[in-house]
Amino acid sequence: MEKIKVGIIGATGYAGAELVRLLASHPVAEVVAVSSVSYEGQKFSDVYPHFIGINDTVLQSADEVIEKSEVIFASLPHGLSEPLAEQCIAKGKLLIDLGADFRMYSAEAYAKWYKREYSHPELHKLAVYSLPELYRDKTVGAKIIGNPGCYPTSISLGCAPALRHGLVETDGVIIDSKSGVTGAGRGLSQTTHYPDNNEAFSAYKAGEHRHTPEIEQVLSDIAGQDMTVTFVPHLLPVNRGIESTVYLKLKDGVTEDEVRCAYEKAYSKEKFVRVLPKGSYANIKNVRCTNYCDISLHFDMRARRLIVCAVIDNMVKGAAGQAIQNMNLYFGLPEDTGLCMVAPAF
């Protein structure tokens, strides 16, 4: 098979650099062009020296990347991907957006949570949202793929079997998530400054995080009815990883065995979702630098609650790895092509 020509716009951000790292070992894809507004004209390996001799590509403009590539990954802040999508469609290229511009079904929800209107509303009719384990069929023939957010990925995979099989109530859902600092991006802020973040742990944007509407969108899809959740994210003093603990009310008569059976059956054929044995706890260390989502199930039968713990690497399954998984689906490749990584032991 002729190699897929890949371009990355926003290559020097954390997710962009992770795309370069993962695609370096992809047997069918080749990174032919990369761009960065901040470092245009420099070599990629000047910005990330561990790529010396591996990727010394000169960072170009976004226009040049689109011209040279057949599939373009955009790893940019919200509001910047729509014009790129217009260019890609005009040239018959596939855009996979790692930002937020093509995640929401509702223009009103996007405007409310991201404080801006769509600049090209017509493009959203051509876009699909694809968390592969839940929406893989949508990628066939897609022109724009909206890659899911990191928090919504862990939460959606963690909740899907319970909601799909009607084992839990759809109200009163509480989600407590923790993320490593790479989730905040490469730009420095006071909360991610080492002296403030090291040996610290706190919540942020409680009840108002921008991933909330995406979480509710996917869970509502799965449940077949509108859902409202309470979502509280926290910042962990680690580089990468997300742990989401979700509290769901069990319906009357539902047993632990029923729940476990539903999860094991739902994910038995999924390469990247592992339901852990009874008594195990999902740990971000075990998915570090991989495209896996580990799920552990716990029960408070006194309170009739299912407690789901789901972990991912926010830079891989939560961003670059999932984007490559979507690319593999689009081109009819096995989903794990270029993604068969195992977490380091230490």
Which keywords apply here?
20% strand; Rossmann fold; alpha/beta; 11 helices; 6-stranded parallel sheet; 346 residues; 2 domains; Dihydrodipicolinate Reductase, domain 2; 7-stranded mixed sheet
What does this entry show, briefly?
The protein contains eleven helices and 13 strands. The protein has helices at residues 14-23, 44-47, 62-68, 81-90, 107-114, 132-135, 150-164, 194-197, 212-223, 256-267, 316-330; strands spanning 4-9, 29-35, 71-74, 94-97, 127-129, 144-146, 173-179, 202-203, 229-235, 242-249, 273-275, 293-300, 305-312.
Record the SSE blueprint.
Elements (H helix, E strand, L loop, with lengths): L3 E6 L4 H10 L5 E7 L8 H4 L14 H7 L2 E4 L6 H10 L3 E4 L9 H8 L12 E3 L2 H4 L8 E3 L3 H15 L8 E7 L14 H4 L4 E2 L8 H12 L5 E7 L6 E8 L6 H12 L5 E3 L17 E8 L4 E8 L3 H15 L16
Parallel strand pairs: 1-2, 1-3, 3-4, 4-6, 5-6, 7-9, 11-12
Antiparallel strand pairs: 7-10, 8-9, 10-13, 12-13
Commentary on this structure:
The chain is of the alpha/beta class and 346 residues long. The chain folds into 2 domains: 4-148 and 317-330, NAD(P)-binding Rossmann-like Domain (Rossmann fold), CATH 3.40.50; 151-316, Dihydrodipicolinate Reductase, domain 2 (2-Layer Sandwich). The chain is 29% helix and 20% strand. The mean pLDDT is 95.
Roughly how many Å apart are the termini? 37 Å
Radius of gyration: 20 Å
Q: Provide the helix percentage.
A: 25-40%
Number of strands: 13
Whole-number tally of structural domains:
2
Structural class: alpha/beta
The major pleated sheet works out as: 7 strands, mixed
- Identify the CATH homologous superfamily of the largest domain: Dihydrodipicolinate Reductase, domain 2
Strand order of the largest sheet: 8-9-7-10-13-12-11
Task: Provide a count of the helices.
Answer: 11
Which regions have little confidence, pLDDT < 50, spanning 5+ residues? none
CATH class of the largest domain: Alpha Beta
User: What is the level-2 CATH architecture name of the largest domain?
Assistant: 2-Layer Sandwich
Under CATH, the topology of the largest domain can be stated as Dihydrodipicolinate Reductase, domain 2
The arrangement of helices and strands along the chain is EHEHHEHEHEHEHEHEHEEHEEEH
DSSP strand content: 15-25%
